[in-house]
Amino acid sequence: MFIKVCGMWQTANMEAVASLGIHALGFIFYPKSPRYCLPQLDVLAVQKLPKTTKKVGVFVNSSVDNILITAKEFGLTGIQLHGHESPSMAIELAAAGLEVWKAFGVSKDFDFDETAPFQQICKAFVFDTKSESHGGSGLKYNWDKLQEYTGKTPFLLSGGIKPEDVLAIKQFTHPAFWGVDLNSGFEKEPGLKDSDAIRIFKEQLL
């Protein structure tokens, strides 16, 4: 199962998490987030992360130019669009050689038809809890809602996942279920992840 840990910026912390064999680290380039990674994020430290670890930049309603400049500076391999971005933006980013992931805020009224325009463009979807903060709310939604999703693009389960959710995740089934996106539920404080908790979670999950 694919595991992404999002909301990182402290060098020693992200190196410790990457050393666990985590598949992807996420860096939030959204100024309103409590896990906004600039200006603290060390460019060289990100560039030196293992090649086996995907480096995903999270952006909310940013411009293509800003995303491309940031991706080049930090050596990002993927982009997670977490706002109201258009399919044409996703196409442009993919054409630049970046993996594009699109996040959707899920609530009881969410219509999965919203994912259709991105189906042939994105590497993956991130189904997060709908919130005004565009993620990182620490809240869960009803995962049964995801059974309404009939698309082929794989997705990450996100939104308020905590160490005690291992069994529920192992019991969750869906043809397009790819992995999990961990954030606030594994933190000592915003942006500082509990690497021991992540290690134990990974061992129990896989």
State the shape.
Answer: globular
Helix vs. strand class: alpha/beta
Helix content: 10-25%
Could you list the spans in which at least 5 consecutive residues all have pLDDT below 50? Answer: none
Describe the strand arrangement of the main beta sheet, using strand numbers: 1-2-3-4-5-6-7-8
Question: How much strand content do the residues show?
Answer: 15-25%
Largest sheet: 8 strands, parallel, barrel
Regarding quaternary structure, what we see is single chain
Quick check: average pLDDT? Answer: 95
Write up what this structure looks like.
This protein is an alpha/beta fold. The protein is built from 6 helices and 10 strands, in the order E-H-E-H-E-H-E-H-E-E-E-H-E-E-E-H. The model has no long low-confidence stretch (mean pLDDT 95).
Summarize, please.
With 206 residues, the protein is of the alpha/beta class.
Keywords for this structure?
206 residues, alpha/beta, 8-stranded parallel barrel, two-stranded antiparallel ribbon, 10 strands
SSE topology:
Blueprint: E1 2-6, H1 11-18, E2 24-28, H2 43-47, E3 54-59, H3 64-74, E4 78-81, H4 87-95, E5 99-106, E6 124-129, E7 155-158, H5 166-171, E8 177-182, E9 187-189, E10 192-193, H6 195-205
Parallel strand pairs: 1-2, 1-8, 2-3, 3-4, 4-5, 5-6, 6-7, 7-8
Antiparallel strand pairs: 9-10
